[in-house]
Amino acid sequence: xxxxxPRQLQTTNLIDHACIHLLKTTNFNQLTIKMILxxxxxxxxxxxxxxxxxxxxxxxIEDQLINQIAFIFTAHQHDGDNTAPFHEVLNYLxxxxxxxxxxxxxxxxxxxxxxxxxxxxxxxxQSTLQTAVTPLAGxxxxxxxxxxxxxxxxxxxxxxxxxxTVATPAVAYTIxxxxxxxxxxxxxxxxxxxx
Length: 195
What we know:
By secondary structure, this protein is mostly helical. 70% of the residues lie in helices and 0% in strands. It contains 10 helices and no strands. It has helices spanning 7-23, 33-40, 44-50, 54-75, 83-95, 97-105, 111-133, 142-161, 169-179, 184-190. α4 (54-75) packs parallel to α7, α7 (111-133) packs across α8 and α8 runs antiparallel to α9 (169-179). The chain is elongated, with a radius of gyration of 20 Å. Mean pLDDT is 87; it is low at 127-133.
């Protein structure tokens, strides 16, 4: 660890990394504080100085990811380029893919719900402006359209990051954009499903 990094940050990073390392092979319900302590090489008091329990630790790790993604979107909110934040978020997720994938596979993790909330917040602002200009067709409400979009984004993220060989963020972005134009009939044809 860097000597320049504040001691508190060094310690919490040690604990965070120990937790993620253990979650790759251990179910969260079986994960104990003692296991985390041994993996991180720290004392029990040190752990409890920063976290009240393993749930608070998991929440902290998730929030670090969510806060960085939110920061990326906020930094680009006035760019006028809607693609820039998505490219940067995909790059960030790619760099942290082991942590993200571990959390997405952890039953106790709330990362999927937190990403859902974040995306809803970001697209909710845009859709409020757009629905005044472009009403949705038929019975498709703005809320349903948002849910379909978010589900698509989350499905692509999970699929992308869980592949044995993870494609580059540029490829993932291209797949996302291409998927936006596919109808259910197109998807069924691609999946070789007869309806």
